[in-house]
Amino acid sequence: MRSLTRRNFMRLGAGSVAAGAAAKMTLLKPAALWGEGREVAASDRVRFAAIGTGTRGCQLLEASLLVPGIECVAVCDLYDSRHEAAQETLMSKVPATRNYREILDRKDIDAVIVAVADHQHRRIVVDACAAGKDVYCEKPMSHTLEDGFAMIDAVRKGNRIMQVGSQRVSSIVYEKAREIYASGALGEVFFIEGSSDRNSPSGAWVYPIPSDASEQTIDWNAFLEGAPKRPFDAARFFRWRCFSDYGEGLAGDLFVHLLSGIHFISGTDVAPMRAQSSGGLFRWKDGRDFPDLIETFYDYPKFRVALRCNLNNAGGEPIRFHGTKGTMEIIGQTMTFIPQDISPKPETYSVLGWPARLRKEYAAQWKLDHPLPGPLEYQAVEAETFTAPEGYSDVAAHQANFFNAVRTRKPTVENEEFGNHAAIGCHLANYAYFKKTIATWDPVKNAIRG
Ligand SMILES: NC(=O)c1ccc[n+]([C@@H]2O[C@H](COP(=O)([O-])OP(=O)(O)OC[C@H]3O[C@@H](n4cnc5c(N)ncnc54)[C@H](O)[C@@H]3O)[C@@H](O)[C@H]2O)c1
Question: Among 67, 96, 235, 383, which residue's beta carbon has the most beta carbons within 10 A?
């Protein structure tokens, strides 16, 4: 019997780790935020307003309370009860309006957070840039391809800072993943997969409609700007994601997070080259325009990406990078790097069809060709899990990055170009799905062919 060398032990270790056991756990330490732990003078504070204080707008306001050196001085929404919700979140009776132009006219406001339904992003971002405000705009950046390029023009023309709201890009977990990817520890990565699967009415956007919703409490006509006119319809107002007049379905809502994370980690600064989609509307047949299952295969210059959103099974939101030397998996605020066992091994499979004399000869030669390494050549290759501390908020980190950029005038990582590339990925997925074709991105004409 051969003794268990460190190298053989390593082989066993890597194999067993690949089967699921993580060897080492590291708690990541968030970087200190600007202004943390000290009183920021009023003159150093960034004053902002929130336009759109629905579900996401209120989440963003809540997270903004964790970011030092900023102050929300006004809120805006088309639905009156959302003024109240925003003020409750801020624990302050800041001025509230239905008309975002009143906010843009104020000279004491540096920046706006835009968290309105997607079809309204372009108009508000373009107007905000023209009014000299920096903009945090929720994901997906654009409702249409044209919207994205119009927003880029507006940001450049106004010399503004813009950040798009896929908060993973500011997460310490994604930062670590980006570091591991860049280090080459994964080897060459040719395939990346991600999914976002849910199984509940809320996950399928069947949100409840509040009892006071009416044309008196909601400025329905303002909501319809940029969309076809139609009589008041509360379902369309509260469940806008289901309708192509206002949203982009699963691709715009959820692929965009997966794509933003993948682009950030892999350092991708282009839109996908091609997309092919499959799927269907199987279960949530409530008059919506979009499928409840979509799978898209993307071609990028150096790798392929497979994404899936399924509203019919709660599978969570994993992203996996499959490299020639290891696999990296991110689930929520935890990332695990699992090395693959690529140490040389003698062939045992195909030689089964060889006579014993040839097998023996091969085994002897293999041993000669692969001497065991010396004691100092052993290298531990272990799985490692990295996780964010409890209570860590990548939403607050993302806002901190935005407000720091507002101060320093240095572009954010998830700027208008980045946001547009991820959004183009969403538009390609929908184009391929609805037209039953392969959608090809033409970066010269900024158009989809197919
Ligand atoms: N980053 C994330 O994880 C995340 C999560 C949820 C939503 N979002 C994004 O945030 C945005 C808002 O989503 P939501 O879930 O909060 O929707 P929501 O329907 O809950 O809220 C949107 C609000 O925007 C308001 N609005 C629409 N047009 C307006 C206008 N012209 N002026 C002022 N207010 C206007 C509506 O009145 C509504 O209250 C969307 O772009 C969505 O994709 C991002």
Answer: 67
Contact (CB, 8 A) for 67 and 399: yes
Q: What is the token pair recorded at 242?
A: 């289901």
- What residues contact residue 338 under an 8 Å CB cut-off, 6+ apart? 17, 18, 22, 326, 327, 328, 329, 383
Q: How far apart (Å, rounded) are the C-alpha atoms in residues 112 and 158?
A: 14
Alpha carbon 435 to its chain centroid, in Å, reads: 25
In contact, 176 and 386? CB cutoff 8 Å: yes
In degrees rounded to 5, what are phi and psi of residue 114? Answer: -105, 110
Q: How far is the CA of 439 from the centre of ligand 1 (A)?
A: 28
Residue 373 — φ and ψ, nearest 5°?
-65, 155
Mutate to test the pocket of ligand 1, among 55, 114, 225 (most ligand atoms within 8 A of CB): 55
Predicted structure pTM score? 0.94
Residue 31 has pLDDT above 90, yes or no: no
d(CA 55, CA 384): 36
Within 8 A by CB and 6+ apart from 164, the residues are 137, 138, 139, 140, 141, 260, 414, 415, 416, 418, 419, 422
Instruction: Give 195's strand partners.
Output: 308
Q: In the chain, how many H helices and how many E strands?
A: 14, 17
CA dist list (Å): 374 to 42, 125, 153, 208:
64, 62, 61, 67
User: Do 395 and 57 contact (CB within 8 A), yes or no?
Assistant: no
Mean pLDDT of all residues belonging to the chain: 93
pLDDT of 328-348, one tens digit each?
Answer: 999 999 999 999 988 899 999
Strand partners for 164: 137
* Ligand 1 atom closest to 247 (CA): 43
Pairs from 102-108 (Cβ < 8 Å, separation ≥ 24): 102/76, 103/49, 103/51, 103/74, 103/76, 104/128, 104/131, 104/133, 105/131, 106/49, 106/73, 106/74, 108/47, 108/73
Residue 66 three-state SS: coil
**Region 222-230: what's the mean pLDDT?**
98
